[in-house]
Amino acid sequence: GAVVSQHPSWVICKSGTSVKIECRSLDFQATTMFWYRQFPKQSLMLMATSNEGSKATYEQGVEKDKFLINHASLTLSTLTVTSAHPEDSSFYICSARVGQGIRSQHFGDGTRLSIL
Amino acid sequence: KQEVTQIPAALSVPEGENLVLNCSFTDSAIYNLQWFRQDPGKGLTSLLLIQSSQREQTSGRLNASLDKSSGRSTLYIAASQPGDSATYLCAVNDNYGQNFVFGPGTRLSVLP
Question: Which residues of chain A have pLDDT under 50?
Fold first, then answer.
């Protein structure tokens, strides 16, 4: 149980393109999802917390107009990288919180974004 | 602000050895701590979750301990195998926020 599906797994596109990444909780409802970014050989850095039905909470230094997050349902959150540039190339991972009490997180397999 | 460190940054051992990975955190007011495994280019797989009231958790050849007062956790891997080769991340969930703060990870290579 507690499977998180992330799509696409890999995307390559030209500079200036907008890219949408989907994160779905397949067998549970997730009121809270998280978006992380990971640069090569570095750890995960939280970008934003996505709450169903409300605006996302962005971490300091993350441009909310560039990284648009939508959490329209209890099973889907999307991250759109708008007007992507080569410096946005990274590994993006989403997670969904499971259980209010335990507060465990289950992670998607990540999306490798390469901007040419 | 919570900071998480992991030692060593990289470790290479022959197959069959028992090994210990270390995780330290600066703010002891944590809700829980979780150990993850990450294979290259992949997402995270949860290994063990320790609530703040617990001292340790075990799953197969893995044992994780937590000493909240000293801000430390260890992941013990018994009888290591080449398939254990991966990056191991620890993350703490504090009492104030909802998210995890991750350590930089330990890259483990188990040689056959």
Answer: none
